[in-house]
Specification:
Rossmann fold; about 250 residues; alpha/beta; 7-stranded mixed sheet; 8 helices
Length: about 250
């Protein structure tokens, strides 16, 4: 994989090192809050896990939103991880814990493939196309234990196919530590897996599940832990108030 000369781009009050002429630029064109789903009511003390950190366009702004909490950002690609480190430092963030590894269903090493038609974006351990590098592999259960994480308020998973291995290999005890999940699933990168198989697994583990942004074999799955009390979001409060007013008027 070719090395790149970095440039810096400012966006929404943050600064990011990026690789010009690559998919990094496309990523910076997206809104930084694109993964801030309405089901998630954020609080300053929250603990957030970012699986698939890339160059930090999720972890960096999220760290500002949880000043008394912590963001754990996981990125397996060595070059992307190096840029992620630079961007955390560039923005002066002290509450981000960075981890250069791939989560999957075993501990050891894995081959991370760099998609030839999607340079710097779409690295995958389940889609064997393009050049590859060897990276450390770990399970979600072991990662949480090693980092003494007892509760995760929000976990974003965007890891190009490995989401099935990560979630489906996790025990109910492990997943019970997570209040809210956003999973970007890629069935085309994981033969034999389906949206429904992920949904059924999450339901069996005690989650209420929704599907959004579905397109072909990809989409977003939102899973909320049924045993965790969730304060209503502002949008939900407004909806309830409208219904209440409508009932009173009628």
């Amino acid at each position: 994989m070719a090395s790149h000369n970095l440039q810096i781009r400012d966006k929404d009050g943050f600064s990011f090192h990026y690789r010009p002429g690559t998919a990094d630029e496309n990523q910076l064109d997206f809104p930084l809050d694109m993964f801030m789903i309405p089901e998630y009511r954020i609080w300053p003390h929250h603990v957030v896990v970012d699986v698939g950190g890339h160059i930090g366009t999720f972890a960096v702004p999220m760290a500002k939103k949880v000043p008394r909490g912590k963001v754990y950002s996981i990125e397996p690609g060595k070059e992307s991880y190096s840029i992620l480190e630079k961007n955390v430092l560039l923005n002066g963030l002290g509450n981000v814990s960075l981890h250069n590894l791939a989560l999957t269903d075993y501990q050891g090493t894995a081959r991370l493939y760099h998609a030839p038609d999607n340079e710097t974006w779409g690295d995958s351990i389940t889609n064997p196309e393009g050049e590859a590098e060897e990276v450390r592999a770990d399970t979600l259960e072991n990662f949480l234990e090693e980092n003494n994480i007892e509760k995760v308020d929000f976990m974003k998973v965007n890891c190009e196919g490995a989401e099935f291995e990560i979630i489906q290999s996790s025990t109910k005890d492990t997943l019970s530590k997570i209040s809210l999940l956003l999973i970007l699933y890629h069935c085309d990168y994981n033969e034999g897996q389906t949206e429904q198989s992920m949904i059924e697994h999450l339901k069996e583990k005690g989650f209420r599940v929704w599907v959004r942004e579905k397109e072909g074999e990809r989409g977003w799955i939102i899973a909320r832990n049924k045993k965790v009390f969730h304060l209503p979001t502002l949008r939900q409060v407004r909806f309830m108030m409208k219904n209440l007013i409508r009932k009173i008027v009628n």
